[in-house]
Write a structure and sequence with these properties.
four-stranded antiparallel beta sheet, about 20% strand, eight-stranded mixed beta sheet, 12 strands, binds fe (ii) ion, 11 helices, single chain, alpha+beta, about 350 residues
């Protein structure tokens, strides 16, 4: 049986004036894909090519830093710290920016990686640095710092816009606009840079990332057009995602599934490396802070009794590291499913 293809949906900004006929078509395609597969490919023009090039170049810069610098990226929140080449996933390395849509979040991370002693600076300062005569290590660091933080902030904001467009479609289609706006107001974006090495020789294990569902509310993935991501259908078939230019993979996480009372599917996925090219990808993971995850009343009726108790997203993240959470085959269900 040939596996189905993922829907490729046009999210060109000019077609997305809310409630226009093209918006309504896009909305129904997106809803169908989220309920059936929990994922679709958005062709999105909110990230111009120059920014796309800049963010992948910034990604290379951060992975090229010495390991002793990268490990400085720690976090109190599970799965938010630097993770590098573990025995279970030796090809995979990742590092992330918490609160990536805020200048503070991005500057905090950038200073950890390229400590420069400078607060914030703009184009005038960059011009000064580039034009000052003496090349120095410090000058080089300042340029990296500036370049990295500007690209990360702009990329994160552009991807957040896509998240908001998708969520407003979900809201309109379920008639839960108010709850959705509250949720958007409590959404925190974590931008992660990911790098996968090629497996050693032909017999090397090509596993880039183990099969899992995401612990986020929503994840938006973007790669530098190197294959590897695979999505499992509800029927158990693996679909290989074809990387396309200007495409963003919009995927529901466990928390979106629970919030929607199980209407939206959170798909299992993995990364299998092929060929001899390293793979760089970016993931923007949305978490909900300071607001209980509560199924909107409109999604509960006689045919759809509530399936999940209210819960706090960050407490759920901590639960994942408990022995019960680690053992569970489906932690979101063992954490808050109503039996
Ligand atoms: O690199 C990718 O395309 C997928 C990464 C992923 O699934 C994750 O970080 O949760
Ligand atoms: Fe994932």
């Amino acid at each position: 049986m040939t596996p189905p293809k993922l829907s490729v949906i046009d999210f060109s900004l000019k077609n997305l004036i809310p409630n226009s006929s093209s918006w309504i078509t896009t909305c129904s395609e997106a809803m169908h894909a989220l309920e059936k597969h929990g994922v679709f490919i958005a062709k999105y023009d909110g990230v111009p090519q120059e920014l796309d090039d800049a963010i992948f170049s910034a990604s290379r810069d951060v992975f090229d830093l010495p390991t002793e610098v990268k490990v400085l990226s720690t976090s109190d929140t599970p799965y938010h710290a630097y993770s590098g080449k573990t025995p279970v996933m030796p090809l995979y390395e990742s590092i992330g920016i918490e609160n990536a849509t805020t200048t503070e979040g991005v500057e905090f991370f950038t200073k950890l990686m390229w400590p420069s002693g400078n607060e914030s600076f703009g184009y005038g300062f960059l011009f000064y640095v580039l034009n000052s005569v003496t090349p120095s290590k410090n000058k080089f660091r300042l340029i990296k710092h500036w370049f990295f933080s500007k690209s990360a902030l702009m990329f994160s904001k552009a991807v957040t816009e896509l998240y908001q467009i998708v969520m407003r479609m979900v809201a309109k289609s379920y008639g839960i606009e108010e709850q959705c706006e509250t949720l958007l107001g409590s959404s925190v974006q974590n931008l992660r840079f990911m790098k996968y090495l090629c497996p050693q020789e032909d017999e090397g294990n090509p596993l880039g990332m183990l099969p899992h569902t995401d612990i986020s509310f929503m994840t938006i993935l973007h790669d530098k057009q190197v294959k590897g991501l695979q999505i499992k259908t509800k029927e158990g078939q693996w679909i290989e995602v074809d990387p396309l230019p200007s495409s963003f993979i919009v995927m529901a996480g466990d928390v979106f599934m629970a919030w929607s009372n199980g209407r939206i599917h959170a798909p299992c996925h993995r990364v299998i490396m092929q060929g001899n090219q390293e793979r760089y990808s970016l993931g923007q993971f949305t978490f909900i802070r300071g607001l209980n995850i509560q199924i909107p009343q409109k999604l509960i009726d006689e045919d759809h009794p509530p399936r999940f108790k209210d819960f706090d997203h960050y407490k759920y993240l901590h639960y994942l590291l408990t022995s019960e959470g680690m053992k569970s085959e489906c932690p979101i269900k063992s954490y808050c499913e109503i039996n």
